[in-house]
Amino acid sequence: MKLTGKVHKYGANVDTDAIVPARYLNISDPAGLAKHCMEGIDTQFVQMVRSGDIVVAETNFGCGSSREHAPLAIKASGISCVIARSFARIFFRNAINIGLPILECGEAVEVTQPGDILEVELETGAIKNVTRGRVFQAKPYPEFMLELIVAGGLIEHTRRRLKAKGVIL
Q1: Distance of CA 142 to the CA centre of its chain
Q2: What's the rounded Cα separation, in Å, for the pair 11 and 121?
Q3: What are 99-144's pLDDT values in tens digits?
Q4: DSSP labels, the chain
Q5: pTM of the predicted protein model
C-alpha cells in the first residue's frame, strides 16, 4: 500500500484536545469531526488539507484523552498517514483500530519540512521524501496489523473474516 501526500508538520505533545477540541466531542460522525480537525493548534488546517496528505510530528503525538475522536477526525479529513518520533500508546491503538496508518521514524521527522512530498510504503516501512531526495526506514507493521489497516480498521477486518467463514452474509 503506497501513500503519497504533502506534509503538514507539527511539534511535540500534540494532544487529542488540539486535534479535536473538547467542545466538539458531542459529534460522532467522522465527517463532522473532520471539519474541526487540528483546530486547537492550526486553524488553517481544514482549508489546507487535501486527500492523501500526511501529518508529520515530533514526540508523543496524540497524548491526552483515550477517545477515538482524534484519529477519526484525522482520517476523515483526508490524511493518509501520520509519521512521528513517537505516539501516545492509546492513540496508537485507536489509530490502528480505525485503519489510520501511523509510523514512528525520527530521522524522517528531523529532515521533513512543511509542504514536502512524502511517499510511504506500508508493507516495508520505507518513507521517501520526494522533495529532498531522501529515504528513511520505519519499522514495518506485522502482517496482522497491516491487514487491519488495509481493511480500513478492526470492524471491517472482522466483518470480512466472518463473511469469509460464512458467519454473516
Answers
A1: 17
A2: 24
A3: 999 999 999 999 999 999 999 999 999 999 999 999 999 999 999 9
A4: -EEEEEEEE--S--BHHHHS-GGGTT---HHHHHTTTTTTT-TTHHHH--TT-EEEE-SSBTBS---THHHHHHHHTT--EEEES-B-HHHHHHHHHHT--EEE-HHHHHH--TT-EEEEETTTTEEEETTTTEEEEPPPPPHHHHHHHHHTSHHHHHHHHHHHTTS--
A5: 0.94
